[in-house]
């Protein structure tokens, strides 16, 4: 289903039909009462007490799969320049942006309006997206000078978090290095104001396919995570807002972290709701394995009596094929890999 990107024209006065979701997929369909949003755990990466930081990352990953980091080392001017470059891209004249438009999911850089198939239904989410490669950085615009320093700084944050996550799991600090974290990409997402946020979503419910995602956004609000009860990993739950402190980066673990940790760390299921007033732009930097990389539960985590791997080994390329075929639906994806 090809569609004109939302950012190409004037503000919409109503939601076009192809963006209106089936009733059971609309934002209100999965709200089961009202609760106060939880405080997103804050992990201070400053200082050299790695044991303390590793414990905090482990607790946040076990409970939510989401946390925010402060004192992360990404300079404010680097973050600001990258966000301005992203906002400027979506503000370009349509003909300049459309040079990069493609429906080929393997093409990078790629500008598109998101589409998704689910349960035999085809519809569009309220989002424009620019996908760019990060190895090496690829930016399809003259403002690309902002990308390289931002990518380098955010990658350093992700790799430090992965080392600390390994420590928190009781693994060697280098466990996630090499081909397990050798791939990556960035989604530059743009969510224009929506005339009726009750009818659509910016992004549907999903877990990220990789190891860890680092997110920066220009305005708060929109991102929601699925909050589960104790012991409930993948069933019912409550959607709650992810609210981060100014200047913080939001991180979430993906499917590969849950598999490698044998379920000790949660892949954070999330979605994006739309807003009627302000446009929201976010940059999601993904760290994931190389396609040929063999992924398996860390053997050190299944040596105790009664411990068994929850998932079978696979290549990351196989996983991505399943992820795309199942449209990112968490339970359907993971069912292919459970023992």
UniProtKB/TrEMBL annotation:
Q: Which UniProt keywords apply?
A: Iron, Metal-binding, Oxidoreductase
Q: Where is the Fe2OG dioxygenase domain?
A: 181-289
Q: Give the molecular function GO annotations.
A: metal ion binding; oxidoreductase activity
Gene3D superfamilies, per database record:
B-lactam Antibiotic, Isopenicillin N Synthase, Chain
Does the UniProt entry include the keyword Glycoprotein?
A: no
* This protein's record includes keyword Iron: yes
For this protein, the record's Pfam families field holds:
2OG-FeII_Oxy (PF03171), DIOX_N (PF14226)
What's this protein's family per the entry?
Answer: Belongs to the iron/ascorbate-dependent oxidoreductase family.
User: Sorted alphabetically, which PANTHER family does this protein's record hold?
Assistant: OXOGLUTARATE/IRON-DEPENDENT DIOXYGENASE (PTHR47991)
What name has this protein been given in UniProt? Fe2OG dioxygenase domain-containing protein
> Gene encoding this chain?
LOC123403596
